[in-house]
TrEMBL record:
This is AraC family transcriptional regulator. It comes from Thiohalorhabdus methylotrophus. It holds the Pfam family Cupin_6. Keywords: DNA-binding, Transcription, Transcription regulation. The keyword Metal-binding does not apply. Residues 192-290 form the HTH araC/xylS-type domain. Signal peptide: none annotated. InterPro entries: AraC_lig, AraC_XylS_family_regulators, Homeodomain-like_sf, HTH_AraC. The keyword Transcription regulation applies.
């Protein structure tokens, strides 16, 4: 079991390209506040990235910026901030050299308390001057699909946008130099074995001693190492992961609360409901009802 794949899969991410256009002259693009996360690829020409309280950042062809938490930002033709600072505005004057932009958004169906999202910064900037062979190949395929407009192209573009975000996450993880955090834990051989065990069988009644053996560490060394890297105990991590899985299954429907609880290692429905409410913010029954309501309303209109 690959812990990073597991948490990425549980995010149920969906990426979409919402803009593929050439901009000339005076222009500005602002997608802030509309989506969970956004990305902008400068496919050709030059652009300037503006963030409140930061110096403008020049972006050239092939450079990519990703905003995992939808931090406030604007792209424009000039190093001078747009005045007034636009909100949710896309516009330009058709004159001068063109800048080609590909902009999109990323939505996470089951974000919750996900260690991948928690560990990502406000902005990721990937520069083609550094070795990014995998990323370059993806965006080149993306541009081919956007330019050719073949049948099935929209679906292909969406899947490539998904892959683009996954590759960005992997590049960020590979460049992580800190000795703490989710990325460091995944790269640590001992903790990766313990995380793989948890993700591989979340319903198993894991004990600290058993996980410590998986990590080939003493109990005390394992607990200290886990807390230092992930800022939570193994039991807290296991509970949070179980509740993410439980929320996903309850949203999908078809299973009773007690069936989900038992499959995730809970012998007491009361204990499961208490843990679920603490981690998710509502009871499991309420979550399932809220998920079913739109479907019921739609069915009633037929």
């Amino acid at each position: 079991m690959d812990p990073l794949s597991d948490v990425l899969r549980n995010l149920r991410l969906r990426a979409r390209v919402i803009l593929h256009a050439d901009f000339c002259g005076h222009w500005a693009v602002d997608t802030s506040g509309q989506y969970a996360a956004t990305f902008h690829l400068v496919a050709g020409g030059r652009a300037w990235l503006h963030r409140e309280g930061r110096k403008p950042l020049a972006l050239g062809g092939g450079e990519l910026v990703v905003f995992p938490h939808d931090a406030r930002h604007v792209l424009s033709h000039s190093p001078e901030p747009p005045d007034p600072f636009p909100r949710n505005r896309i516009g330009g004057v058709e004159e001068g050299a063109a800048t080609r932009l590909v902009c999109g958004y990323i939505e996470f169906e089951h974000a919750g308390v996900n260690p991948v999202l928690e560990a990502l910064p406000d902005m990721l900037h990937l520069d083609p001057a550094r070795e990014r062979a995998g990323l370059e190949g993806i965006w080149q395929l993306l541009m081919v699909e956007l330019e050719r407009e073949r049948p099935g192209g929209e679906a292909a573009v969406d899947r490539l946008a998904d892959l683009l975000f996954i590759e960005v996450v992997r590049i960020f993880m590979e460049g992580w130099t800190e000795q703490v955090g989710f990325w460091a834990a995944v790269r640590d051989p001992a903790l990766c074995r313990a995380l793989a065990a948890i993700h591989g069988d979340p319903g198993h009644p894991w004990q600290v001693e058993e996980l410590a053996r998986k990590a080939a560490l003493s109990r005390s060394a394992f607990v200290d190492r886990f807390r230092r890297f992930l800022d939570r105990t193994p039991a807290q991590y296991l509970t949070q992961w179980r509740m993410q899985l439980a929320a996903e299954r309850l949203r999908n429907g078809g299973e009773s609360v007690i069936a989900v609880a038992e499959s995730l290692g809970y012998t007491s429905e009361v204990a499961f409901r208490k843990a679920f409410r603490r981690e998710v913010g509502c009871g499991p029954g309420r979550l399932r009802r809220e998920q079913a309501e739109p479907l019921d309303e739609e069915a009633g209109g037929l």
